[in-house]
Amino acid sequence: GDGFGQDFRAPKDADIDASHLTVDFGATDISLPEVAVSTFQIKIGGETFAVADTTALMAANTPEELAAIVNTAFNAQDANVTAIPSGNTVVITDAQGRDISDTIDEGFAVGIVLSGGSASANGIFQSGPVNVVEDDVLVIKSYEDRSVNLGQNQETTEISNAAAMVAQLVRDDAATTDVNEINTVLAQAQEMLVRVSNVSSGDQIVLDINGKEYSYTVQTGETTEAAVTKLKDIINNELDLNSGSGRVAALAVTTDATNFGDTDGDGLTDIDGDGTLDAGTDVAVLTLTQVIVGGSPNSPNVGSQTFMDISATINNTLAGGAGGTIELHNQSNTYVDLVEFPGYDAGLRGDTVKFLGRGETSVSLLQTALDAGDTITGVDATLDTDTPDTWINGDDLLIGGLGNDSIT
Q1: Is the CB of residue 11 less than 8 Å from the CB of residue 98?
Q2: Cβ distance 295 to 161 under 8 Å?
Q3: Alpha carbon 262 to chain centroid distance?
Q4: What span, in angstroms and rounded, lies between the C-alpha atoms of 69 and 287?
Q5: For the segment 193-224, what is each residue's pLDDT rounded down to a tens digit?
Q6: Helix-strand-coil split of the chain, %, nearest 5
Q7: Distance (Å, rounded) from C-alpha 371 to C-alpha 383?
Q8: Is residue 163 pLDDT above 50, yes or no?
C-alpha cells in the first residue's frame, strides 16, 4: 500500500467494540420432530439479514447446526457478521458495533413452527461502546487579517461559501478494490496546469476529464506550442454542455521559461533543473479551469461547476512510442483530499464542514444526503447590514444520495 489512511473523523480501533444479539430459545428443544425453526431474519444497522434456505433451517436439529446455517448466510452478506452456538442460543456478532434488532418492530423475526407443545425465541441485544474519538471538523475561514486570526465580517461581506466548491465522492462498492480509492475531495477555484514538451509528428495528446476525452494528434512540422494551442481550441469549442467534464475552459498557452524554474517550489521544473529551459526544449503549458454557470451579480463565484478528475497521456502507435512528455500540476485555490473518508451518506454535513468569517456560525451548508433518503434544508442568506436590499452568503452545496431526497 501507499501508507496513507483515513485521518479525518477516523474511528480508533480500540474504541469500537463489537455488538451482539443473543437469540435465546429458552426451554425449546429444536431436536424434537414436532419443532422446527422456520425463519431467521434480523436487521443490523438497518440492513436486513435473512436465511433464504428455509428447508435447511427446518432441518437443523441442534443450535450448532442452526448457527452454522445462519453464519454461512450472514457472513456471506457481510464479513463483519458472524454467528456461533452457545448452549441453547445462537449469538450474532457484528464487529462494527452496529445496532441489531431485538424486537419485531425493529425487524427481529425468528420464527418456530410446532405440531404440538410450546416454544420461544427471544432476542437480547448487547451493544459495544462505539465512540468516534476524532471528532474532526473541516473549517474554511475567510480572513480580514490572518496574522491576528481576524475573520471577515460575514454580516457585511460575501465570504467563502459552500456553493463555490466542487466535490468528488468515490463510493465503496464492488468496483472499489483498493480502500485508498475511497476518497472525498473538495476543491474551490479548481485549476490544473498541463505541461507538454517535445512532441513529434503522430503524437496524440489526450486529456481525460471525468471520462470525457479531448485529444489532438500532432501534425508534421508542428511545434509543441502549436499543437497545444490547437488542443486548447478543441476544448474551448466543445458544444456539449451536458458533458461529464462540465464547462471546461482552456486558457492561454505559454513557453515562458520562468514557469519551470521551480523557484516557488510548485513542482514544475525544466529538463535539467537549472531554472531555465534547455536549448532545443519545446514546451507549452495550458491551464484548465471550470466555467461558472448561473452565477449572480452579488455572487459571481457561485454557480454550477463540475469537479474535474483529470488524467493526461501522450501516445504514438505509429512510431512505437510517444516522443513527447506530459505533466499535470494542481494549482487549485483550495484542494482538500480526505483520504478514505466516505463523504456520501451524510458523511459531509453542517457539523463536519463549516464556512466561517468573524462569527462562529457557518454561513452556508455543504451536505450529502442519507442514502436511505433525506430532507436537507439549506442556510438562509442574510441581509447586508451595510448595503440596503442586498442579501449575502447562504449559498449552499447540497448533494443528493441514492434514495428519494427533498432538498430546499
Answers
A1: no
A2: no
A3: 32
A4: 59
A5: 999 988 889 999 999 998 899 999 999 989 88
A6: 10, 30, 55
A7: 34
A8: yes
Q: Which three cell numbers stand for residue 66?
A: 442452526
How is 292-314 classified by DSSP, letter by letter?
PBS--SS-TT-SB-----EEEEE
Cα–Cα distance measured from residue 72 to residue 43, given in angstroms and rounded to the nearest whole number: 16
Question: What pTM value is reported for the model?
Answer: 0.63
8 A C-beta contact, residue 286 and residue 221 = no
For 341, the grid coordinates are 473518508
| Cα separation, 368 vs 379, whole angstroms | 14
340: left (phi over 0), alpha (psi -120 to 50) or beta: left
201 Cβ contact list (under 8 Å, min separation 6): 218, 219, 220, 221, 222
Q: What pLDDT shows up at residue 255?
A: 54
Residue 286 and residue 293: Cα distance in Å, rounded? 21
> Considering just the CA atoms, what is the radius of gyration of the chain in Å?
29
List CB contacts of 5: < 8 A, sequence separation 6 or more: 180, 339, 340
Count of other CB atoms within 10 angstroms of residue 283: 26
> What's the average model confidence in pLDDT over 151-174?
87
Which string of b and e fits 16-55 if b means at least 16 CB within 10 Å?
bebbbbbbbbeebebeeeebbbeebebbbbeeebbbeeee
Q: What is the DSSP string of 351-408?
A: TTEEEESSSSS-SS-EEE--TT--EE--PPPEE-SSSTT-EE----EEE--SS--EE-
Biggest CA pair distance of the chain: 97
